[in-house]
Amino acid sequence: MILNRGMRRRNSMVKLGVNIDHVATVREARKTFEPDPVKAAVLCEDAGCDGIVCHLRKDRRHINDDDLAGLKQTVRTRLNLEMSVDPEIVDIACSIKPDQATIVPENRREITTEGGLDVGGSLNVVKDVCGRLLSNGIEVSLFIDPDPDQVLASLEAGVRMVEFHTGRYAEARVHGGDHAEELRILREVSGFASAKGLVVCAGHGLTYENVREIACIKGMYELNIGHSIISRSVFTGIKEAVTEMKRLIG
Prior knowledge:
The chain has about 250 residues and is an alpha/beta fold. Helix content is about 45%, strand content about 15%.
């Protein structure tokens, strides 16, 4: 497995990828030109983040094609494109060539990604898309629920990196669910994935209040966080918001 642009298989410091989608969400609320997610990405990198994440959705509800092109030209760390298996989006990814593509499920009616990709249930399609992306020099990660069967299906799809959906853990902390059990599952399945040779990342619903336990999971390589950082930046500025998150996970 080739890990691009300084990315290493093992690292004592958990890396932080900042998702800048919601900068574009604010812009699209008025259909104007500001705030600019590309400028936000520059500030996030200046604050020490390890990568920039964006999701080019089929409906272009926030990040658009021009944003993606601008990010490709501007990002100095790593550009991680979240994307579905939609043929149009796959074509765009192969043309733009981000450093990494993370394949996620996509439902136009959802507010945000609601769960992990069912790799086993759509293995042939996912495997074909992964193969095409990899052949274009793009690292591929699959956004999956912390489930051993999905880990094994991801290996069969040909990837060497997964990102675990932490939504159930985050929801349990907020709404009084079995937070300890969800954390146990994440720890156990992360260990299983690491033992299979996969690079383990995590994201979704992570905040300044709940991130520390996930950052401390053995073998965790990177956390991808967006909404919480962008929300805090409204009050503190984006550089301070990124700096504080880096301090918490480091």
